[in-house]
Protein 1
Amino acid sequence: MVKNSSSYVGRLAPSPTGDLHLGHARTFWIAAERARQAGGKLLLRNDDIDANRFKFDYVATTIEDLHWLGFTWEEPMVSQSDHIPLYRAALQTLHTAGLIYPCAHSRRDVLEAAGAPHEGSEHDEPVYPTQFRPPVDSPVPELKDTISINWRFRVPDGEELTFQDGSAGKQTARVGHDFGDFVVWRKDNIPSYQLTCVVDEIAMGITEVVRGADLIRSTFRQLLLFRALGHTPPAFYHCPLMLDDQGERLAKRHDSLSLRTLREQGVTPEEIISKFGDLL
């Protein structure tokens, strides 16, 4: 049960890269219920920052599907594409503090140096080899208006990070072992998921982040960014993932389980939501 507080601010953060599926619906339902139980408010954020994957048509269908399921939120919707100046200001703060550096190594370079295949969410990345780091006292080039090289955050190796998750309980990671230096701005001139999430939660005043359990490791990276930017992180609630019949987590490739397909088959919102009632 969420502690009742009118200061509670939660969010739904769909990405317009495909149709919503049952896994999204369940996570969003939990987010909405936690906001309702807290007597707080719920915001909608359109995670449209990745121009290579973003499809404009999915913004409208996502909103339509959410309304169909009965979700309501505070207007207006926030779009990440409107936050570019905020992301750039945060990057400059990290640069001024000497916490980031340019990195010319490819993902393949990092994978080969790590010596093992990488597994995790789409926003996760392999542990960055320390031998690829520039020396701490080496000069760092200025940020260009248009960025064409990855910029990484230098993590404090050996530090133990802990947070209490509202669903999964106590979570602990050792910095430099469980994750390493991570990308905050990509070479295609797009801010990373880690940076955009942190800046968005700060800008929107989010007090609790509700999302899938596959993003727990991302939370540790984001805790470092909250600290570096001088802000207290929100609470976190990572929902168990919904799996298909083969035990694989649902993804947007599961067209048969998309909300749009289920609607066409005559499934009602009440039938979908009735499956989520025992999750809190």
Protein 2
Amino acid sequence: MKIRCLLLALLLVICCTGCAAPEKKTFAVEELRIELDDSFKPQENDLYAALLKSNRRAVGVVILREEKSTVGDSVKSADDYAAFTKAMTEMSGRTIGEIKHDGDIPYYEYTFRSQLMYKYYTAHFESEDAFWGVQFFCAENRYDKCIDAFSAWAHSVTFED
């Protein structure tokens, strides 16, 4: 009996080693700041302002930046930018959900098949010179477990002048 208790205690210690909760970490992408956690690492890419992936959470963040001068005069706010990117994304053949608001953040959701079926929460922001799309994504079957984190991360976005 004592041996079983010692083995269980040892197993518990082994299982808990390295299980510390992730610590908050701020990532800077030009003037945008976003608070994620230290499980995220920047990934090489040529398409986006930034691509961050978490090996611990199996989620990612794509950050898109578009100069205000390139989107046209009809886009005057983050809400307008959400409608603009929604229309452009739908033109590429994707079906996008309605534009919703998470507090004051306009966002929409959609799914996309790559190697897996992914679901995206795409939040839209405005800085002084640019509009931003911040896409949080995970496997579609994990989305309901991730949506609260996506919302919290979206609300952590700030801009430095």
Protein 3
Amino acid sequence: MKFSVVMISFNQGQYLEEAVRSVVSQGYSNVEFIVVDANSTDDSNKILEKYRSSIDCLIIESDYGPSDGLNKGFGRASGEILSFLNSDDAYAAGAIGFAAEYFEANPEVDILLGSGYFMDSASNILKPVISTKFSPSLYIYGGVTLFQQGAFFRREIFQRIGGFNINNKTCWDGELFLDMALEGARFENVQKKLGYFRIHGGSITGGGNLIDLYAVDADRLFRRVKNRRRIFLFDHLLGFIVRAVKYVVNPKYLYCKYFDPRC
């Protein structure tokens, strides 16, 4: 089973080598590694050149943002199973091998949502992230924990939805999986830790960047699912209930998040 991994890169040189090494050291023999760099001005190019022999396709050119870069990368991909990684994140050892065994054993599954860890700028583990059930309604009400660094999906479902929305600058991964769900894809979650999500000042999550733009994207996705605008009090209350229920129906998530960060 062939895997294609697309990594997008832009001025994340201080984390890039760790991200690249996490891919090339997987130990799985059939991985196509594609890197798309949007003309970085730091030392990213030197790092990519250092690992050039392990990169099957290197694209260095300007783009219209992460979604555009990912579409370019997946346009070159030939694997049966696809995944993507930011240049400041990383895969866990053996992640691709685990995903390969899972898809071989579960041919009816389109998307595997694994779990993982948050880490800081120095690669210290902060806490675990346990992925939860994905559905359109749960997602728009904040009732989904989506760990993109541990997500793998079949090529067919990606091609059916036409890739990423290049106009989404804040939650392009969430919209991708929402599109897949609306297309009828079958999701399955595992608690296996498959990756690391880095929180730092330069990231959207860690730095609080693009908050207003994220709200615009979130409202647009809400309208796509519900065919209406949010009703302020009703939908905010419903969102609170959905998020609370997430903990009730996922006791492992609650336990790991608040009581045992080692799990």
